[in-house]
Design brief:
With about 425 residues, the protein is an alpha+beta fold. The chain folds into 3 domains: about 15-210, no CATH class; about 210-270; about 285-430, Histidine kinase-like ATPase, C-terminal domain (Heat Shock Protein 90, 2-Layer Sandwich), CATH 3.30.565. It has 11 helices and 7 strands. It has helices spanning about 10-15, 20-55, 60-85, 90-110, 120-130, 135-155, 165-250, 250-285, 290-305, 325-345, 390-405, and strands spanning about 290, 310-315, 320-325, 350-355, 360-365, 405-415, 415-425. Helix 5 packs antiparallel against helix 6 (about 135-155). The longest helix has about 80 residues, at about 165-250. It is elongated, with a radius of gyration of 35 Å. About 25% of the residues are buried.
Length: about 425
């Protein structure tokens, strides 16, 4: 009996796969909510201890029991949000309303609205503004106002004895403590939540830009596949015609031209085959881990076949490392070499060097005029117009390098243009350095 693949995965991974975006946000916020509630509980306990040292509280036991209940509530909410996050923000709003009720109950037992810690009612409302929709935030704000109003209407004595001087001193000290603790909790909890939300927005923006770029690449890939399919038949026909012309006209001068034509047709056919293989590898995400020297030698062989007389200087020094490559990366490097030879027909140099730990840099240098100023720092970020079609090639090159975890950088000076391809080593790219994937 074949066991379904999903049963072999850990239960936690399976649970994470089914979390919605809002559930993930609530799960991440659980730690901050727990921190806020524990800080509040600690502050309430300290306030009870300090007040008891100065005066005799009338409801000390009830206030301590309420702190204990608040601690249990905080722990249960943390376990719930962490292990089984709610699907709807309504659950979060209900929990924050419970915060307001528990804080209001403690305040009712310790002086009501005269307690300087009454400003703590603002903390659940501030968290609600970040975590839940606006309508529910407004409702929670109204609940907080209602709790405060109830504390004004219904009061209980903080002590059965008269300690006016001590109460005034406690009130003033409590106001300072309340302000300091509220500012600290807002900074640590609300600030951290706001920072996380900003980070998520940046990630979503980056994903959106990557998706748009991938859609452009898919459109270009579909066009290239269609062209490759259509070119196959004409190339085969021209190859047959060359053979027939050779047989019909056995002229030595013509035979030389026909041989050159056959070579060019063979190169075109080879490019179409490479395009088909690259499409298959890109579809199946096949990469291989090759030593840098072996990979550069493969690039050198391909460049020699494409440009036999090109003045390309290849470095003979290679770092002892492996990189994750595929056919699309080879084509991307060849695109850069084509751009360099177009801009600098007299000299192009290719070298490889170690970069930061876990990265290898392949450098292509030339004496050309370089890129436009708008693309010196981030070449290939978008398709640009070009008389020779270099804009699309550079765009696809940059997209291919980024897909494999690398970056493309450019440096332009009075000596020419330097293109730097930064690639992670195979062991840092999540590949088994001894086998293909």
């Amino acid at each position: 009996m074949k066991i379904p693949r999903c049963r072999l995965l850990p239960a936690r991974i399976l649970a994470m796969e089914w979390l919605t975006h809002s559930q993930t946000g609530f799960q991440q916020a659980a730690r901050y909510l727990l921190g806020m509630r524990l800080a509040l509980i600690g502050l309430l306990l300290v306030a009870v201890a300090v007040a008891e040292a100065v005066i005799s509280l009338a409801h000390r036991a009830e206030a301590l029991i309420l702190c204990l209940l608040y601690g249990i509530f905080a722990t249960l909410c943390w376990l719930w949000f962490t292990r089984k996050p709610p699907h709807s923000p309504i659950s979060v709003s209900v929990g924050l309303a419970a915060d307001l009720a528990l804080i209001g109950g403690w305040l009712f037992l310790t002086g009501g609205y005269t307690n300087p810690l009454v400003s703590l009612l603002l903390l659940p409302i501030a968290v609600a503004i970040i975590l839940v929709p606006l309508r529910q935030s407004i409702i929670l704000a109204l609940v907080g106002i209602g709790v405060y109003t109830a504390l004004v209407i219904w009061q209980t004595p903080i002590t059965h004895e008269h300690h006016e001087a001590n109460l005034a001193q406690l009130h003033l000290a409590g106001m300072w403590v309340t302000f300091a603790m509220t500012a600290a909790i807002l900074l640590l909890v609300v600030g951290a939540l706001a920072q996380r939300l900003r980070l998520q927005q940046e990630q979503l923006s980056s994903i959106r830009e990557t998706r748009l770029r991938d859609e452009q690449i898919i459109a270009l890939g579909l066009s290239a596949a269609a062209v490759a399919h259509r070119l196959g038949t004409p190339l085969n026909t021209m190859t047959l015609l060359v053979g027939e012309v050779r047989s019909a006209f056995p002229d030595p001068d013509l035979a030389e031209d026909l041989s050159l034509m056959e070579q060019q047709l063979a190169i075109c056919s080879k490019h179409l085959q490479q395009l088909s293989r690259a499409a298959v590898q890109a579809k199946t995400a096949q990469t291989e881990a090759l030593p840098v020297q072996e990979w550069v030698e493969r690039l050198r062989e391909s460049a020699t076949l494409l440009w036999p007389a090109a003045p390309i200087e290849w470095s003979e020094k290679f770092p002892e490392s492996k990189v994750a490559v595929d056919a699309t990366l080879d084509q991307a490097i060849l695109n850069l070499l084509a751009n360099a030879l177009t801009a600098s027909p007299s000299w192009v140099a290719v070298s490889v060097r170690n970069a930061v730990q876990g990265h290898v840099e392949l450098v292509v240098e030339d004496h050309g005029d370089g890129l436009e100023d708008a693309f010196q720092n981030s070449p290939g970020e978008q398709i640009v117009g070009s008389e020779n079609g270099m804009g699309v090639g550079l765009f696809l090159t940059n997209a291919t390098i980024q897909r494999l975890g690398g970056t493309l950088k450019a440096r332009v000076d009075q000596h020419g243009t330097t293109m730097i391809i930064d690639l992670p080593e195979a062991r840092f790219a999540g590949l088994d350095t001894g086998s293909n994937q």
